[in-house]
Amino acid sequence: MFCQERFREEQMKQAQARYEARPEIKKIREHQKAARKAADRVKTRFLKPLKPMKHAIAKPAAAIDKLGRYHSEPLQRPKGARGRIKLEAARKYGVDINDADRCWRLARRMLARMRAESVL
Q1: How far apart are the first and last CA of the chain?
Q2: Angle between helices 81-93 and 97-116 (to 10 degrees)
């Protein structure tokens, strides 16, 4: 399932890029960066793991935890990825592009049939 795996990777990469491009996510990333910087500054101030260090790090760490939660972006079909993946598969396995496409379609049909039969 080389082609399908590559297709899913491309799909996830584009979804993540769309998510990171949102203005509110950019603000969150800037806030996380500032919180990490504050946490690093506090860590360097205390050489031993003391109780004051825990209190000083708690607020920036909570900000990172709160803002760093993973959010999933809806998956869309990647534009132009299918042609690149077919070409990559054809080169990898030394077959024609049409053969790679035919095998990919056959594999997707078989997966759909297996899912319908509740094997997967």
Answers
A1: 14
A2: 110
Rg of the chain on CA atoms, in Å: 23
pTM of the complete model: 0.50
Give me the count of residues in the chain: 120
Give the relative orientation of helices 2-20 and 97-116 as an angle to the nearest 10 degrees.
80
Helix (H, G, I), strand (E, B) or coil at 95: coil
The 3-state DSSP class for residue 91 equals: helix
Is 25 in a helix, a strand, or coil? helix
What does the mean pLDDT of the chain come to? Answer: 79
Spell out the domain ranges in the chain: 2-116
78: pLDDT strictly greater than 90: no
Q: What is the pLDDT of residues 8-49, one digit of tens each?
A: 888 888 888 888 898 988 888 888 888 888 877 776 666 555
Is residue 35 within 8 A of residue 60, CB to CB? The reply is yes
DSSP 47: S
